[in-house]
Design goal:
The complex is a heterodimer. By secondary structure, chain A is mainly α. Chain A contains eight helices and no strands. By secondary structure, chain B is an alpha+beta fold. The longest helix of chain B has about 90 residues. Classes of the chains: A mainly alpha, B alpha+beta. At the A-B interface, helix 5, helix 6 and helix 7 of A face helix 1 of B.
Chain lengths: ~210, ~260
């Protein structure tokens, strides 16, 4: 029962984010394409995940693919706010690629979730989003809570920053306790809901900003 | 460690990480807020410095013009009038008595004196030699003579010696207030009080028609009075009501008190 509530809340939040994204007028100043692709992919993957779980099919490949594509999209999103940080973004992408290929070479993509790769992505994204948020906090003349980028990057920071210890515990600390690990798996979807709530908030602010500038 | 204990530990660590990140975001918001407040204060200070520089330049330009005008009146127009006066005197001494010419000579004499005094007053270098009270006293005498109003000047205590720049600005503000009283309020009695104890204060009261301060706040003259006073570290307080005259009270801000 709890599983269904969790999945319903997550899908509802993704749909809300999609709706707020749809309402933002398209401008060159806002990374609508990246955000829209991210939300649509999440909707597709979560729906597929739901169907495959009901049919008791291993869906690791779907989530592995999503984690990689999301990593690239979120790097692009961060890069959008720090255009001159090319080398830093490349280093982050390089680190992500290394853990990804390491995971591919050690596990079967269809059978296992690439926890090491997801942890590596989370570490890179958390560090980069924190650095960019620090930069914005030191240079913005607008209150942070009124900036779409604050909520976008804040969502990324909270999601990946909180995911890091949870996944690390599941994978390394409680690896031998299946029951415990399955209980801890309830936390990531909650973080995901929070991330899409932050994205929806950012899109509402972006819409206001675009409309007020017309 | 039992299963439950491990679960509690895991949830505690996850919660700690989550709360830590929220605190990080809040810290960033506070940091941004502090920075913006400091930035605004710096901008305000820069604006103040710019205003002061502009005012200083305007004051220097005005003083220069007035000094030139005063010199011109004293040395040139005054001399021409003196020559004309001597000519009329010669005609009167050599020719028969002519009452009209005598009246013209008297008027010429008064005009010469007036021009010389005006030229003298316009010389801003005088602020190095005379005090604000002297300048106000001379202006009061002139007003009584020229504008046909009663001007009462009261000096309490010993007013401190102000810097020439402050004296000049205060005197210009005083002139603006007097001009407003004569031009707009129809006042015929003006009371001026200069106080030195416990601190310097200048109060100007007229018996004119007054005005509604709520409706007149945006008037350029009033704004200028406040702005000029602020530039020299003074406050200007106006007490007035329709039909109730007007009182201006100028005094230094506590941190600028001489």
């Amino acid at each position: 029962m709890f599983y269904w509530i969790r999945e319903f809340v997550l899908l509802a939040m993704i749909c809300i984010a999609l709706w707020t994204w749809w309402r933002v007028p398209r401008t060159s100043h806002f990374p609508s394409f990246l955000i829209g692709t991210m939300i649509l992919l999440a909707l597709l993957v979560e729906t597929t995940g739901l169907v495959t779980t009901v049919n008791r099919v291993n869906n690791s490949v779907v989530y592995n693919a999503l984690s990689f594509v999301e990593f690239i999209l979120q790097l692009g999103l961060i890069h959008n706010y720090v255009r001159r940080w090319n080398s830093v973004i490349f280093i982050g992408a390089g680190l992500g690629a290394i853990v990804w290929f390491w995971s591919i070479s050690h596990y079967n993509i269809f059978d296992f979730l690439f926890i090491e790769a997801i942890l590596g992505f989370a570490l890179v994204l958390m560090s980069l989003s924190l650095a960019v948020l620090w930069r914005i906090a030191r240079s913005s003349d607008t209150p942070l809570q009124g900036l779409p980028e604050f909520w976008l990057l804040g969502g990324i920071l909270i999601y990946h920053g909180s995911l890091l210890p949870v996944l690390a515990m599941i994978h390394f600390v409680f690896a031998k306790d299946d029951g415990m690990a399955s209980l801890l798996w309830y936390i990531p979807p909650f973080l995901c809901v929070l991330r899409y709530a932050c994205i929806a908030g950012a899109l509402v602010l972006a819409r206001r900003r675009v409309l007020s500038s017309i | 460690m039992t299963g439950l204990e491990r679960m509690v530990l895991a949830v505690a660590v996850a919660t700690l990480a989550f709360v830590g990140l929220i605190v990080t975001l809040v810290t960033l918001m506070v940091l941004n807020n502090t920075r913006r407040i400091r930035h605004r204060a710096e901008l305000a200070e820069l604006q103040q410095q710019k205003d002061e520089a502009v005012m200083e330049a305007e004051r220097e330009a005005t003083q220069h013009t007035l000094r030139e005008l005063g010199r011109e009146l004293h040395d040139n127009v005054g001399q021409l009038l003196a020559v004309a006066q001597m000519g009329v005197n010669t005609v009167l001494e050599e020719g028969p008595e002519n009452p009209r010419l005598s009246a013209a000579r008297d008027a010429l004499e008064q005009g010469t004196d007036e021009v010389r005094r005006l030229g003298h007053d316009l010389n801003s270098d005088l602020w190095q030699q005379r005090s604000l009270v002297d300048a106000i006293s001379a202006e009061a005498e002139r007003l009584e003579r020229v504008a046909r109003v009663q001007v009462h000047l009261l000096v309490h205590g010993t007013p401190p010696v102000l810097e020439p720049g402050t004296s000049t600005v205060l005197f210009r503000v005083f002139q603006v207030i007097i001009t407003n009283a004569l031009k707009h309020s129809g006042a015929d009695v003006i009371d001026i009080a200069v106080s030195g104890d416990p601190q310097f204060a200048l109060t100007i009261t007229d018996n004119g028609m007054g005005f509604d301060p709520e409706r007149t706040t945006a008037h350029a003259g009033l704004v200028n009075i406040h702005k000029r006073c602020a530039l020299i570290g003074f406050t200007a307080q106006c007490t007035t009501a329709p039909g109730g005259g007007c009182t201006w009270h100028l005094q230094p801000l506590p941190e600028h008190a001489p």
